[in-house]
Amino acid sequence: MANTYPAMAIDVRTGRSKLGNLTGGLSGPAIKPITLTAGLEARKAVKIPVIGLGGVETAEDVLDYICVGASAVQVGTASFADPRASEAIIEGLGALVRTVKCNTYQRIKG
User: Fold this and answer.
1) Residue 97 sits in which domain range?
2) How far apart are CA 31 and CA 62, in angstroms?
3) What is the gyration radius of the CA atoms in the chain, in angstroms?
């Protein structure tokens, strides 16, 4: 799947890119709906493990990717804001799985 998409931002006062380069990569929570769809389609198309990434900031985000068929989930942009983001997500995952009454990976994945 993907963790960035081509994007750009223009400064309307100068007519120049706000990014330094003409284009850059859009990442984080904004791309999660797109990558969830890509993950679902990838899982249908291939017989190899699919890694979910793009906008993963919470335990709920991890389960979203697992529900569409990801075998593993990667945290990226959230780690820039909080280097311990992965630890917090893992801590929340156990409690969340119990709350949604899913206690095994296969049961969550369906």
Assistant:
1) 5-109
2) 14
3) 16
Q: CA 96, CA 102: separation in Å to the nearest integer?
A: 9
Q: How many domains does the chain have?
A: 1
Domain holding 48: CATH number? 3.20.20.70
pLDDT digits (tens, 9 = 90+) for 42-85: 988 999 999 999 999 999 999 999 888 899 999 988 999 999 99
Beta bridge pairs of residue 17: 10
pTM assigned to the model: 0.81
- Summary count for the chain: helices (H), strands (E): 5, 6
Amino acid letter, residue 16: R
> CB count, 10 Å around CB of 102?
17
Cβ count near 104 (within 10 Å): 8
